[in-house]
Amino acid sequence: MTRNRSITRSRVSSESDTPQSVAPVRRRGQWLSGVPGMWTGVGRGSITGAWQWHPARRGCGDGGNNGLRGDRPEPAAVLDGDERRVRARGAAAVSHGWEVDVDDLVIQMDGVGVRRGKTTLLADVNWSVELDERWVVLGPNGAGKTTLLKMASTEMHPSTGTVDVLGERLGKTNVFDIRPLIGLCSGALVNRVPGQELVRDVVVSAGYSVFGRWREEYDALDTDRAVELLEQLGVAHLADRDFGTLSEGERKRVMISRALMTDPELLLFDEPAAGLDLGGREDLVARLSTLAMDPDAPASVLVTHHVEEIPPGFTHCLLLRDGGIVAQGLLDDVLTEDNLSKTFDQNLELQRAGDRYFARRRA
Q1: How many domains does the chain have?
Q2: Which of 39, 46, 52 is nearest to 11 (CA)?
Q3: Range of the domain at 282
Q4: Counting CB atoms within 10 angstroms of each CB, which of 79, 128, 176, 279 has the fewest?
Q5: Distance separating alpha carbons of residues 37 and 312, to the nearest angstrom
C-alpha cells in the first residue's frame, strides 16, 4: 500500500504552474531540483493539507544539528532518485517470503552490525519498514533499541551491513538531504529546548532545525501550521507559554507537533512515554493511536520497554535482546508470552484487553 498523497502537491499548483527551478517535486526521500528548501502545509483535522514551497531554508530536520543557528551547509542540490531509490529486497523480507514493494520501503537494514571497541551493540540485523507500517520496537535496557533508532534517523552508520533510509544508503549519500523528511521525538531533543522558548516557536522553528528562535523569518503558513498541529495534539492553548513551564506530558505533545511540522515521510519515537504519570501516559498513547490510524500519516517506529505503551493502530513488532532480533513481524503474531519471556529473560504473563497489552511476571 502507498500513502494517498500527490507527489506534485497539486493542491497548491501543478508542476507546469511551478517550474522545478523554483519549486521541486518531492518524491519519497528525494529533492528533484537544484533548489533546497521545504514543503509546509495547513490542513485542519489532518497532518496534510494545502502545501507551499519555501526555498533556501537551512538545516531542515532535527537530526544531528545540535540546535545551532545556520551552522549547517545547504542541502545537496540534486539527487538521482531512480538510481538511488531502487534497492534489492531486504534479507529479512526474503527469508520470510514477504512480498515487498521496494518503492514503499522507508527503512531497510541488511546484515547490520554495530560495534564500539570490543562491545557489540547490534549483530546481524535484517529489518525493513514499509510506507504504511507502524512498528513498535521492544526490548530490555541494552538490547540495542536506541542504536537501531539512531541509524534510522541517520545519526549513526553501521559497522557492517547496509542501511537504506528513504531510498538512500548511509555512507553513500549526504544525510542532510534526507533528514528533513524524518520526524524525531526523543528525550534528548526535549533537553535541548531552551526553557524560555515559546511553545509556538518550538514547533515552527523545526523548519530551520534550530532550538531558540533568533532571526529566522516564517510565513503565516508556517505559523498557522504550527498552531494547527498543536491543536491536533491538544496543546494549542499553550502556544504562548514558555516551554520550561510545561508538564512532562505537555512537552512530549509539543515535541510530537514539532516532529510533524516539516511533513516527514518517517516518524521516530524514542520512549515517548518515559517519565509520564499514568494520566499523561494514557493521554499520549491515545493521541499516538489517533496518529497511527490516520491513513495519511507517515510510517512510524516507536521504541519502548513496556507493552502497556503500545498505541492501538500499530501494526508490527520487533523484539530485541543483546543486540539481536528475537522475533519480528505482525504485532499479533510476534507479541506472545513465549517471545516476550525470551526477550526479557523472565517468565511473563501477557494479557490483552481490546487493543491494549499488559504484562507481568508469573507468580
Answers
A1: 1
A2: 52
A3: 26-361
A4: 279
A5: 35
pTM assigned to the model = 0.72
Structural contact between residues 107 and 127, judged by C-beta atoms closer than 8 angstroms: yes
Q: Is the residue at 19 inside a domain?
A: no
Instruction: Collect all residues with Cβ–Cβ distance below 8 Å to 118 and sequence separation of at least 6.
Output: none
Residue 18 falls inside a structural domain: no
Q: What is the pLDDT of residues 302-347, one digit of tens each?
A: 999 999 999 999 999 999 999 999 999 999 999 999 999 999 999 9
In angstroms and rounded to an integer, the radius of gyration of the C-alpha atoms of the chain is 20
Q: What is the CATH number of the domain that holds 257?
A: 3.40.50.300
For residue 346, give the nearest of 144, 138, 46 by alpha carbon: 138
In a domain, 91, yes or no: yes
Is 4 a member of any domain? no
Q: Which of 28, 21, 58, 25 is nearest to 39 (CA)?
A: 25
